[in-house]
Amino acid sequence: MNDFSKIKDVITSSEELKAMLEPPHEHVVKKTITHIDPHIAGYLAMSSIFFLATSALDGRTDVSPRGDKLGFVKVLDERRLVFPDRMGNRRIDSLLNIVENPQMGMIFLIPGLEEVLRINGRAIITRSEEFIASMRWDGKTTGLAVVVEVEECFIHCPRAFKQAGMWNAENWFTKEELPSVNEMFRAHLVINGVSL
């Protein structure tokens, strides 16, 4: 159980928060559009990965990466895009959340580009074999696809990636320095009572 009672001077209202921070520049507010224009479509065509944020009705949230070959996110029209559900670990956290609460967000990346594309909207899951076949995705899907109705799209400034030095290979750890994902996985199984 989380205990936040020891944290002092907590912001508890949007009014308090807004009073502490300067309002955004007009350009930041007005860069948001409500449809997929040719610039957004061009970015999507060059992005091979995005992060999908969803939440259940009880507030549980999930963010998961979705990666595939270039062009796997397809623009259906100026208000809708679609991506395939691929075989994975079968947790289906994102899909379960979408069934309960269709509101979702996506952050798209293009390797080497520090600006990211943010899309927020509402999603549905389809199992239409005819529709999925018409998308001509290479490889096997789960028999499901996610269709997103776009509510807002905008390019996000490069500050986070610049500060992180994300695309600068000189900042990358060596393979030997990286955490052992296998050790982490096994340790977490043991924490949850799985005998190895």
What can you tell me about this protein's structure?
InterPro entries: Pyridox_Oxase_FMN-dep (IPR024029), Pyridox_Oxase_N (IPR011576), Split_barrel_FMN-bd (IPR012349). The structure is a single chain. The protein is α+β, with helices and mostly antiparallel strands and 196 residues long. It has a single domain (25-166), classed as Pnp Oxidase, Chain A, CATH 2.30.110.10. It has 7 helices and 7 strands. It has helices at residues 14-20, 26-30, 38-45, 93-100, 129-134, 159-164, 181-191; strands at 49-55, 61-67, 74-77, 80-86, 103-109, 116-126, 141-156. The protein has a 7-stranded antiparallel beta sheet. The protein is globular, with a radius of gyration of 20 Å. 16% of the residues are buried.
Shape: globular
Please, how many helices?
Answer: 7
CATH topology term: Pnp Oxidase, Chain A
Helix amount: 25-40%
Distance from first to last alpha carbon: 27 Å
Give a count of the beta strands, DSSP E runs of length 2 or more: 7
Structural category is alpha+beta
Instruction: Tell me the CATH architecture.
Output: Roll
Q: Uncertain spans, ≥5 residues at pLDDT below 50?
A: none
Strand content: 25-35%
Give a quick account of the main beta sheet: strands, pairing sense, barrel closure: 7 strands, antiparallel
**Total count of domains:** 1
Tell me the CATH superfamily.
Electron Transport, Fmn-binding Protein, Chain A
Return Rg in Å. Answer: 20 Å
CATH uppermost class:
Mainly Beta
Order of helices and strands: HHHEEEEHEEHEHH
Kindly report the average pLDDT value: 94
**Numbering strands along the chain, what is their spatial order in the largest sheet?**
2-1-5-6-7-4-3
